[in-house]
Amino acid sequence: MSGLRRSERIVRLTQTLLEQPYRLISLTDMAEKLNSAKSSLSEDLAIIREVLLKEGIGTLETQAGAAGGVRYIPGVPDQQVSDFLREMSRLLADPDRILPGGYLYVSDILGRPDVLDKAGRIFAHIFSMSGADYVLTVETKGIPLAVSAARYLHLPTVVVRRDHRVTEGSAVSINYVSGSRRIQTMSLSRRSLPERSRVLIIDDFMKAGGTAKAMCDLMKEFKAEVVGVGVFMSTSEPTNKMLEDYVALTVLSHVDEITREIRVEPGTFKISQKGEL
């Protein structure tokens, strides 16, 4: 393949980087693929980095040495985060979402690819410095969120089951008390998670925190460290949850089945330029 023009190289480099966040991409391999000198690619990458930083959508991190390369670190502009959370709060406050018992119907929102993509990017930005090895969730509604976050963190996803499946081999199971005060069981295959892993928990909803705490307790059986917990929505009540350290993108503060009134507010977390809380 003949050498490409700079504009063509930049487009191809940008596409490769954006499609594989957090993955270290070899400059040697890219130079061969694009039939270009490493010096030319370095200049192209400097342009891409400048644009990413200017737009607030991330940066590039380089690693020197024979095995070195470059990786894309995703970011989300503060204004985009604010706009997204306000829009989610507006959609979730629709009175037609109220279900018997004061629950909200959110499956349609968590089935939208644009919502999952933005939420996953935000979670990845929040927990980019956590050092997680795996993203963990519990079936079923939290799975798409966890997969989206894992994609932007370039990490594998592990799913905790409500019951043990023979096809997954030997497993660890624990009983726990859910937010509705019912005794439930969750199970995880021993082969799905190496011991002493660092785990990021992502889920769709938290009320009292029973499910999230149970996942943390389950991780102790694998000698794993939980480095963060993120949920799409939490409730303001009860204030004393079973788990203290977590991030909620939105907060459900009030539901009245009689007056059909709902109040949902954006979460109050902050993100620094490096993705630290």
TrEMBL record:
InterPro entries for the chain: PRTase-like, PRTase_dom, Pur/Pyrimidine_PRTase, PuR_N, PurR_Bsub, WH-like_DNA-bd_sf, WH_DNA-bd_sf
SUPFAM superfamilies given in the database record: PRTase-like (SSF53271), Winged helix' DNA-binding domain (SSF46785)
Domain Bacterial purine repressor N-terminal as annotated: residue spans: 5-74
Q: Which residues form the Phosphoribosyltransferase domain?
A: 109-255
Ranges that cross the membrane:
none
Work out whether the entry's keyword set contains Metal-binding: no
Q: Which family does it belong to?
A: Belongs to the purine/pyrimidine phosphoribosyltransferase family. PurR subfamily.
* Subunit structure comment from the entry: Homodimer.
Protein's name in the database:
Pur operon repressor
The species this protein belongs to is: Effusibacillus consociatus
Q: Which taxonomic lineage does the organism of this UniProt entry have?
A: Bacteria, Bacillati, Bacillota, Bacilli, Bacillales
